[in-house]
Amino acid sequence: MKVNQEVQIRDPFVFVDREEGKYYLFGSTDKNIWGRGTGFDVWVGEDLEHWEGPYPVFRPNVEFFSEENFWAPEVHEYQGSYYMFATFLLKDSGKRGTAILKSDSLTGPFHPHSDGVVTPNDWFSLDGTLHIDEEGKPWMVFCHEWVQVGDGEICAVRLRDDLKEAVGEPVPLFAASEAPWPTSFHHKTRNTQENYVTDGPYIYRAENGELLMLWASFVDNVYAQGISRSTTGKVTGPWVHEEKPLFASDGGHGMLFHDLAGQLHLTLHSPNKTPNERPIFISMEENAGVIRRGENG
């Protein structure tokens, strides 16, 4: 396991540029992550230990639809351009949602691409991620937040081919309480019911063709990373859940990637307390669709 002490970041996302031989590390980079947002930065490295930056990749103008909660940017290459899926708190409604930004370069600048958020306007939503299905059609997988529904959900919605907007209504995939490992909590001010968190979904197609999903929740108030799999190989599921979390040591919102040498890694942030969060890189092994920590992880 590698921990970078120089980079303070939440929700780390690594884009591997195999042509350049470089890694681009995106994430929630505001020092006051819970308050006013300044934008997003990227760190660039030729290995997973030494990073240059941060370099600004997105800064909002005065007309931008959000001023707070700039969270969880993911960058995906799609049809020759780079698209950033990121969460924002909306000025007009006070709700959160995922919007899509676009750039011709991994170092930006990224500009708004979708017309506002592509999640439902009346939902508290976050952490949208891109998935291209077996027919080449784009979907977004995202969280319907516990702050609105109590038992946090993970949903999927079809996107228009140009990623400008959603097509149709979101499809609920599962609620956090359906998995055996997350535990509930009571919130003093939001509600008195049992609440379960869903955070940071990431879709990964295993070597054997199975469709896996990483997502985060809490175990006894400790941030944890779990994994689920689609029984059909399709994003609409049904989804079944592993009995125990993949990582339960106060870390989560992770993603999987193969490094330049082909080694599989899990990256996530840990601990889950600002300003101490750091990106962690863990070597993983994949066997018949099962992801486990490797010998050097």
Automatic annotation (TrEMBL):
Key word Hydrolase present: yes
Keywords, ordered alphabetically: Glycosidase, Hydrolase
GO molecular function, one term: hydrolase activity, hydrolyzing O-glycosyl compounds
Gene3D superfamilies: Glycosyl hydrolase domain, family 43 (2.115.10.20)
Pathway annotation from the record: Glycan metabolism; L-arabinan degradation
Site, as annotated: Important for catalytic activity, responsible for pKa modulation of the active site Glu and correct orientation of both the proton donor and substrate: D127
Listed transmembrane segments: none
GO BP annotations listed: carbohydrate metabolic process
Coiled coil: none
SUPFAM superfamilies assigned to the protein according to its UniProt record, in alphabetical order: Arabinanase/levansucrase/invertase
CDD domains per UniProt: GH43_Bt1873-like (cd08981)
Family listed: Belongs to the glycosyl hydrolase 43 family.
Protein name from the UniProt record: Glycosyl hydrolases family 43
Native source species: Gracilibacillus orientalis
